[in-house]
């Protein structure tokens, strides 16, 4: 094969030489040599495919890979033929990552993966799995949504269960068995109370029990019951009754589709919701039984413990019509060149729906100099207390001031409200002290920037119901949620692909650039891109250990598992950092089969460092994979000289890989920017880093890379 290649190189040299030495001839009989560019291209076109320059007998396990766009590849067009004729393995640029597979609701769609597997199988081309665990290209909106605070809206109806004693810290009127106590700050929301029930060593369900006072009802009416419960370890609870036709019913407690006499509990608050429709008298009682499992501590939230008639009269009347701004209308306002209105969909609280915004260009001399105003249908009642709640965030931090105002500008203020960059709920109250409090006003003069408001509710404090509780998840809950998603994702991908894919980037880009001996982290960074989610911030340094354990559990026993990173040839400290991390991973009892080095380099990259990197990686004894090779030319209009430098660098990388990585450790080389076309799996459109140009003509880089491969 070497002789074959040298033949083409020789032809190229002769062609270039002849084209530069054309003598003058009689115009009646002459021939013109082909221009050098055409002659050069013909030489490149006459070369064999890349795979033909490999000694497959001496390197039977070496994988020559190319990056693909999965849609383009599975359509089986021109790029499909080009890839399969030159490469023995393909790697998806994006299509096998979390963000490409996991839908907004958490479901996974593997249709494109399966189509790609079918296309590769038809060609006899293997697929390299890229990537199981990464911080980028994630469906971060879905993952962060699971970790976001739980927003619990109580029913806007009268609560038939008298909670007054519990709300004041007393257990009067409530009965209990076993260790049952009222406890402050044990409820779902910040500063809310709960009832703690602690199971002992037995397993009698009724040995730990809380019993409600009699709950008055109208005979024959159905009533809905809502309970929020959690436990410090997995547990079990149940509810029995007095006053029903069936006091020990089987119920679908959590809308799972299955009736049972008990329900499971865990470290996160969960809603128990069911209907009681067989009361035999004018009241009934509930027994909360938590003695099923020994040594488990349970919490029942007090504020959202509800029994109500869903067909009854609403117990709340929001005086602010369209307080959720979903009709697209905002409020009027004035001052300091400010602007206001309803946002587009997706900018409301929780990332859905609309919100109201006010943009104030600068802080003013008085807080009242920038205001919005909402007019009530009629004046508020003099002497009555009014509750105000809303969600608020800003693009900066500052202060706003809500108040109830009269036409003469006298007012009852709710106080200052601190605005942060994160959504938060504000709950305030004030008493109307005049007969003509006719409008709701918010002042923004102390805030420079944009304030967003959503779900504004103003109601009489005499009305119950309709409250909102914001439930923040604990670090323990967040870790458990992330662990569950981590396993669900890896299990889903591997069980789908294991019959065809036998090698994986299990963890991609773990090491930090600024601190190359430490893992990357998103802690302290409030400006993360929308697709960024750092698994390691929740699972810790052993996240790669867990990933390998799961890959071994759900994949094939002999799958090859790699840790992959970039800039290892640029920063030798980072190269050492990933080697150290691999050693740490293996100290935990799992095996890393290989290390991938991406090598997104350019024509000026430090060749000495490239050699040092290969030596360092080879010294680990692990498989070494050049996982994402491309060579940038640093210009969008490269000259022939620049393209020659690109050719030399592709050749150099292949030669140094062969020279410094023993044959038994050579997993392979994958070319990332196969062509200059942005339609291929090209992450750097316009950078001219490929082996083929935008028209799929071979470039000098093709020849250089082929020559480097011949060294095997």
Automatic annotation (TrEMBL):
State whether keyword Cell inner membrane applies.
no
Q: Where would I find the GH10 domain in this sequence? A: 425-708
Q: Which reaction equation describes what this protein catalyses?
A: Endohydrolysis of (1->4)-beta-D-xylosidic linkages in xylans
Q: Which GO terms describe its molecular function?
A: endo-1,4-beta-xylanase activity
Name the Pfam families for this protein: CBM_4_9, Glyco_hydro_10
Keyword Transport belongs to the record: no
PANTHER family, per database record:
BETA-XYLANASE, GLYCOSYL HYDROLASE
Record's family?
A: Belongs to the glycosyl hydrolase 10 (cellulase F) family.
What's this protein's name? Beta-xylanase
């Amino acid at each position: 094969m070497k002789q074959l290649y040298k033949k083409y190189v020789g032809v190229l040299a002769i062609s270039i030489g002849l084209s530069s030495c054309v003598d003058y001839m009689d115009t009646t009989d002459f021939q013109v040599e082909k221009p050098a560019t055409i002659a050069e291209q013909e030489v490149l076109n006459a070369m064999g495919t890349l795979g033909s320059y490999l000694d497959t007998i001496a390197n039977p396990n070496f994988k020559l890979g190319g990056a693909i766009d999965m849609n383009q590849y599975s359509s089986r067009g021109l790029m499909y033929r080009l890839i399969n004729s030159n490469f023995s393995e393909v790697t998806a640029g994006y299509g096998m990552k979390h963000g490409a597979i996991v839908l907004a609701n958490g479901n996974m769609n593997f249709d494109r993966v399966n189509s790609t597997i079918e296309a590769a199988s038809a060609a006899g081309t293997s697929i390299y799995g890229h990537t199981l665990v990464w911080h980028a290209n994630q469906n971060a909106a879905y993952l962060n949504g699971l970790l976001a605070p739980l927003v619990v809206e109580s029913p806007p109806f009268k609560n038939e269960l008298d909670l007054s004693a519990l709300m004041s810290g007393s257990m009067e009127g409530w009965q209990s068995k076993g260790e049952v106590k009222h406890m402050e700050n044990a409820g779902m929301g910040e500063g809310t109370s709960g009832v703690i029930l602690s199971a002992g060593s037995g397993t009698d369900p009724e040995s730990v029990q809380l019993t409600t006072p009699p709950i008055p009802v109208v005979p024959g009416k159905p009533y809905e019951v809502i309970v929020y419960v959690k436990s410090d370890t997995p547990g079990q609870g149940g509810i029995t009754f007095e006053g029903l036709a069936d006091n020990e019913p089987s119920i679908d407690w959590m809308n799972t589709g299955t009736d049972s006499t008990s329900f499971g509990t865990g470290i996160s608050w969960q809603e128990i919701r069911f209907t009681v429709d067989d009361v035999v008298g004018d009241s009934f009682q509930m027994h909360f039984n938590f003695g099923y499992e020994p040594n488990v501590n349970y919490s029942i939230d007090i504020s959202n413990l509800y029994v109500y008639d869903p067909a009854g009269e609403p117990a709340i009347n929001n005086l602010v019509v369209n307080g959720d701004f979903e009709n697209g209308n905002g409020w009027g306002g004035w001052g300091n060149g400010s602007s206001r209105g309803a946002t587009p969909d997706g900018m409301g609280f929780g990332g859905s729906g609309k919100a109201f915004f006010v943009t104030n260009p600068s802080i003013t001399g008085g807080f009242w100099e920038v205001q919005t105003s909402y007019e009530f249908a009629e004046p508020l009642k003099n002497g009555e207390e009014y509750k105000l709640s809303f969600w608020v965030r800003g693009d900066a931090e500052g202060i706003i001031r809500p108040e109830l105002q009269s036409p003469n500008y006298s007012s009852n203020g709710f106080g200052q409200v601190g605005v942060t960059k994160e959504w938060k709920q504000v709950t305030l109250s004030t008493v109307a002290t005049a007969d003509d409090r006719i409008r709701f006003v918010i002042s923004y003069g102390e805030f420079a920037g944009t304030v967003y408001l959503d779900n504004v509710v103003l109601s009489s404090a005499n009305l119950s119901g309709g409250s909102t509780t914001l439930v923040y998840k604990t670090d323990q809950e967040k870790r458990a949620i992330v662990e569950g998603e981590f396993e669900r994702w890896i299990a889903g991908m591997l069980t789908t692909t294991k019959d065809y894919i036998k090698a994986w980037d299990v963890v991609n880009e773990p090491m930090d650039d600024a601190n190359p001996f430490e893992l990357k982290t998103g802690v302290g960074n409030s400006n993360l891109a929308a697709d960024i989610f750092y698994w390691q911030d929740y699972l810790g340094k052993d996240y790669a250990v867990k990933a390998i354990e799961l890959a071994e559990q759900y994949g094939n026993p002999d799958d090859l598992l790699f840790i992959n990173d970039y800039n290892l040839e640029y920063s030798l400290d980072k190269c050492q950092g990933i080697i150290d991390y691999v050693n740490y991973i293996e100290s935990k009892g799992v095996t890393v089969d290989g290390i991938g080095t991406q090598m997104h380099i350019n024509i000026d990259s430090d060749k000495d460092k490239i050699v040092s990197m290969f030596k360092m990686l080879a010294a680990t004894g692990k498989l070494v994979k050049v996982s994402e090779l491309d060579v940038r030319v640093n210009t969008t209009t490269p000259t022939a000289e620049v393209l020659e430098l690109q050719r030399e660098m592709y050749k150099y990388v292949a030669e140094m890989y062969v020279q410094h990585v023993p044959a038994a450790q050579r997993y392979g080389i994958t070319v990332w920017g196969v062509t200059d076309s942005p339609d291929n799996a090209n992450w750097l459109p316009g950078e001219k880093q490929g082996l083929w140009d935008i028209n799929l003509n071979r470039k000098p880089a093709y020849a250089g890379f082929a020559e480097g491969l011949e060294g095997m």
